[in-house]
Task: structure prediction
Amino acid sequence: NEGDDYKENQRFAEHMKDKTESSSDFATQKTLKEQRQFLPIFSVRQELLNVIRDNQVVIIVGETGSGKTTQLTQYLHEDGYSNYGMIGCTQPRRVAAMSVAKRVSEEMDVRLGEEVGYAIRFEDVTTESTMVKYMTDGILLRESLNEPDLDRYSAVIMDEAHERSLNTDVLFGLLREVIGRRRDLKLIVTSATMDSDKFAVFFGNSPVYTIPGRTFPVEIFFSKNVVEDYVDAAVKQALQIHLTPSKGDLLIFMPGQEDIEVTCGLIRERLDEVDDAPLLAILPIYSQLPSDLQAKIFQKSPEGVRKCIVATNIAETSLTVDGIIFVIDCGYCKLKVFNPKIGMDALQVYPISQANANQRSGRAGRTGPGQCFRLYTESNYKNELLISTVPEIQRTNLSNVVLLLKSLGVQDLLEFHFMDPPPQDNILNSMYQLWILGALDNTGNLTTLGRQMVEFPLDPAMSKMLIVAVDMDCSEEVLTIVSMLSVPAIFYRPKGREEESDAVREKFAVPESDHLTFLHVYQQWKSNNYSSHWCSEHFIHVKAIRKVREVRGQLKDIMVQHRMPLRSCGNDWDVVRKCICSSYFQQAARLKGIGEYVNMRTGMPCHLHPTSALFGMGFTPDYIVYHELVMTSKEYMQCVTSVDGYWLAELGPMFYTVKESLKTRHEKRQVAKEKLIEMEEEMAEATAQLKAREAE
Ligand code: ADP
Ligand code: MG
Result:
């Protein structure tokens, strides 16, 4: 009876039109309480609570925007579950955790961080009184390390399960055990898509509850021809929509930050060329955008101003913005995928799946009939896009997961109960990488070092660097470097002042190392009393570097807790470079030509990133290690430090040796040299004797 649904929706739309001009007016006119009662989930509130009361595990399916994320926690709280422990709700994305917690605190009329709080890595906004806690799935995973039964929680909502993020998948396996041990814990799994049976079966045939939808038809337009430049095509489409009389906001999907920035800039630019163009509020959203700017997408724009949101796939299901009528879908997203060529994960642009495409177009049909413009052909969609995205667990490096599970006592990872097990090669490769770092021994058990590494919320190599630094007496310095690496984008480069900011940045450069350059910047900031004025003078994001200080404090606490003393090496920064080498030797490159390097393990050519302190310094060391590879037009090594070839052999003996022939040649030469000197001495002596005899 889809027709009935549609009629119902039409009536509903008419009803809405009578009441208000547009949905965003509507949102501000209604009180928060009224808005809550208007959500689709509200009509089934009691029924849902009954199902939850009768079952330990419930799978809840509902369209994006039906109120799952913001309402379920509140319903459980209102029903008294918070009397027995916290109500936790996990999110695969940090932005969603923060933004939703803020919204819920407003709906509950409490201060964020008190009754309602959130926790993401390096940022815990909760207190003793927190009853509703939003967090990333990674945070709950770490909590389970110290509290395997999650005793502080009375209910856990695993939100956005359809995303199949790595941490959510691992949590599935762990929580399956926990619910067996704790019959009082409620587990709710929510999904925006219908493929929920798999979740139900995994948790022992749990009931699936579907929230009745309220969606409008969305007209889909495919591109007729293959699109060469999706940014350009999106900009054109956006202008076409905006410049023909129509109402309703616009949402554009782009793969990542760079494309979003370019798209926003181009729309602005071309709109400025049009006389008397209607007003347009252009709003970007991506995970690295500061949170005050992120919040802007939810604000109502002034009367007569259309909103145009340009987003990553964060707006696909995690965040819902009301009032979207038009969607433009570029057809791509960024995914982290293990790249065997470089032996590590790389964030790269990939075509989306059909499931993504359908979610994206669905965003146009929430408040009325909408339109979606797909910048790819129908045949692309049908024949080339995967039905759904490969779960992260099957395509990324699992080192961190292996480390975590090992320390939880999971002996045989191939036996762990995954919903979709990762390929065996993937597990073995991750174990190999941990063995290289010394976190696992030859039998695959955690070493002391491995056990220590688990304590830090960092990638294994970074944890190791910090731990090794203690023995090398440079933990003060390495702690700063690790903190700087954990916060993205310290420097900024404003438009029109590129040269000026580059010049300032160059002054900080330590010619042999980007890591040491980071250290230098932080130390300078510190000796200027952590001044914000100093930051703006030096083109440094004050918020970012303050975050570094905060992260540093948190990591320091962990070190103190585990009796790892902070020691400084003073000005002897060679030790710091050696410490970096001890954890990154597996990512080394050798100089090949002028400014050209080859990866020492794969033989692949790779390049210094133009922002590197080593770039264009006229100083190109023979050996370097790098923090990560960025794949754009070329393979760029980002954050690089020069190292001694002998350190590589000493610290990474499984990969490198000092060439024998070279060594023996060197030795032979030495022996020959000594012989020569001996001979010369003998000759000199003989000549002297001869001379003496002659003189007689
Ligand atoms: P679901 O999880 O089912 O997709 P949500 O609970 O996230 O749904 O959203 C329900 C409603 O709450 C949506 O209409 C959305 O517009 C609103 N909402 C969610 N977060 C915010 C926010 N940060 N600011 C304003 N409105 C929000
Ligand atoms: Mg949600």
In short: Residues 68-69, 159 surround magnesium ion (ligand 2) (CB under 6 Å). Residues 85 and 154 are 5 Å apart (CA to CA). The two ends are 130 Å apart (CA to CA).
